[in-house]
Amino acid sequence: MNAGVLFGFLVYLALLAYIGWWANKYTKTEDQYFVGGRKVNVLAAALSDKASDFSGWLMLGYPGSAFKAGLGAFWAGIGCLFGTLADYVLIGPRLRIYAGKFRAITVPDYLEARLKDDTKLIRILSALIIIIFMTAYVAAQFTAGGKTFAEGFGVSVNTGILVTVIVLTAYVITGGFFAVVWTDVVQALFMLLTLIVVPFLALAKIGGLDKATEIIASADPTKLHPFGGATGWAAIIFAIGYASWIVGYLGQPHIVTRYMSVEDPRKLRRPGIFISGIWTTIVLWGAFFAGFLGFALYQAGMLNVSDPERVIPAIAVELMPSWLAGFVIAGIISAVMSTADSQLLVASSAIARDFYHKVLGKELGKKQMVNISRVVVAIVALFGLWFAISGPGIIYQMVATAWGGLAVGFGPILTLSLWWKRVTKEGGIVGMAYGLVSEVIFEAKIYGWAFNPDAPSIWGTIGGWFNGVPVFFINFFITLFIIIIVSLLTKPPEDVVKLHEELFRKVPIETGRKSITETRAKSQVENVAEFVMAKGLA
């Protein structure tokens, strides 16, 4: 084991330990444990949001995909960038306003209150969706941590998985949401620095972009084609297959929970979009080129890598001083932990709060609920550990499977409930039930819980037109359609419709102290949020 690499990583580990200790002072109640008391600064929330979003997939899975697919993998980055923007436009501000009005701590809290569901079915379905797919998602992060430790420290992948589980679970149990948010901020900065430095090092080593493309062209010309060599309809399907991540952003509880914690919903528009947009653009560029150039290094005999998903840690160990490579390894572990910590917290809330407390009606003190949540975190981590060791072991596939399940389960109902006053609890129940059952069947039976964008999907089997389009992308729109049809056949309570109209009606432009130009300079969402807060509606 390289002592320099170990030193760099231990410095990072000490920083995480300090943040967990500090955050524990602000984690005394259930509200603080799960959403930070709704007082999180927009800068911290935005960076935490993106660090939670871009997991080991960004540092290992996506570079591995670029290593294997070449230029065509860039479409996945396009999907992620526009998905990020869609979240801030369609979900963030309105969800924060509604969450404040209902005092919602979790996504199931919000959905039950918004749809006025007294049957508890929405909360039960939400908990099942979260437990099943979030545990699979956590397992993907554990696998990513195992691969990183294996490449950086020369241990087995399973040993690396075990170390990841121990470190991660410890600080989530200790600090709750504050620990997760502020470690995410540090981790986002580590990820950013890593994905700026590594591609430039690879470019310098290979001798420039022209040299890299020359080497790649001689090895496999299709890797330089934006559609993997496909043309016509096949090219469109190729792009959709990789960019399909976009719909998933609307239904990821570990991401949208960040919006519920922000102190001021108005800041989720311009500051939030600016911070997230810039960060996302840089890291996606860096991750793609790390894998793309890593393939050139491999073909030139300058890099030895046994697994395409280990290309970034391999470049770090090969091209950097050992102590600096330790910080890069820490940056990769940052990506893993920044997502897994949020997912553990969301899974914990689904079991402890949504099922044990709300469905079973177990009344406990706030401190007792926090302690139960910590026990649940440990249990979910153990299940994730088992699946990480026994699962397919391909991070891109594992993340896509879990991402798709959450996208179909939550994305359609969340979007409709925030923008359509006519949606009903019956529509939500039927849609979520269909999403849960269909995704479990499709993913387990068709893909074996290992999504592959290059493999024929069920839609390709049926018609031959949609080969390469993942099940969850089309299933998202089927679920959306089901919710709309059932809602049109049923009737929402009048007070629910009235509240929606009151919260989100167009706010007239006032010409009091501010000029019309100054007022119009704000987005409509900012005007609505200002109106809502002034009227004490949230």
Automatic annotation (TrEMBL):
It is found in: Cell membrane. Pfam families: SSF (PF00474). PANTHER family: SODIUM/PROLINE SYMPORTER-RELATED (PTHR48086), SODIUM_PROLINE SYMPORTER (PTHR48086:SF3). Belongs to the sodium:solute symporter (SSF) (TC 2.A.21) family. It comes from Thermococcus gorgonarius. This is Sodium:proline symporter. PROSITE patterns: NA_SOLUT_SYMP_3. GO terms for molecular function: proline:sodium symporter activity; sodium ion binding. One of its GO terms (biological process) is proline transport. The chain crosses the membrane at residues 5-23, 69-91, 121-140, 160-182, 189-207, 227-251, 272-298, 323-351, 372-389, 395-420, 432-451, 471-490. NCBIfam families: sss. One of its GO terms (cellular component) is plasma membrane.
